[in-house]
User: Fold this.
Amino acid sequence: LDLPADLEPAPADVGGEGEDGYFVAPTRGVPPFQHWTNNSVLPVDHILGGNIESAFRLLHDQVGVVNFEAYKDHFMTSYSRSRTIVVGMPTAPSMYCYPQSNWKDANPKNGLPAVGLKLNDLVSRLQSAYQLTTSGKFGDAIEKFRSILLSIPLLAVDTKQEEVEAQQLREICCSYLVGLTMETARKEMPKATLDDQKRICEMAAYFTHCNLQPIHQILTLRTALNLFFKLKNFKTAGSFARRLLELGPKPEVAQQTRKILQACDKNPTDEHQLLYDEHNPFDVCAASFTPIYKGAECESAP
Assistant:
């Protein structure tokens, strides 16, 4: 079969630029995950890129993390999402693919990894933590809230609104963690002496000032109300009763609370002096479970 001259294959050039007849291998390219760490200052992007050391440094500089032991599982989970594997031909090695978040307009040098953890995922986990709190499973709830709190610095948000929501989520987790850990410690305290009972009442009172959901705020106020009434601190107990009624509890709870309030109003005095001032705004120290009043010197997390 005679082919036209313009269809005949051209001879392959195996000699590179010259005609010496040897093969010149192309220069090895830069893998996508290396570009991820070069293009981003987000810790999660460095985790996905496999550069754990730089991720540690970013978390330390951005949010002050110094102990990374609690992050081990989070790092491993994030890194496991960084690539997919495509099976090739028999006896051929599998091929790695690197999903990118900006795949529509990315080129080989400006790619960013696809982050599997989303803000909506943490919000869903928050609802589960709320349910555990309502059920009284404080130990499980603490683990859930702490996991959410550790995951927030590993988010990659796209809008200012999502950034604000992530900050609000952090505040919620911090409030619940302080309150639930303090309540767990309170339940484990001895009740033998008067000083023990006073300390238990103080911690119950502090818990009512944590920023919780109304349904959980009602539970804290009921606990503090009962403890202060038994301690014969009727004035403060009456204050808890009024705060409880303002939240609109169930009819049976409201009826019982009104009866206690009437009893407190007949003798509005406190028999024992406690380290608690409801009229002076304060935060609760997460280490000592004591109030840090407004204007006092304190150390706060970044």
User: Anything to note?
Assistant: Residues 160-187 form the longest helix (28 residues). The CA atoms of residues 149 and 190 lie 31 Å apart.
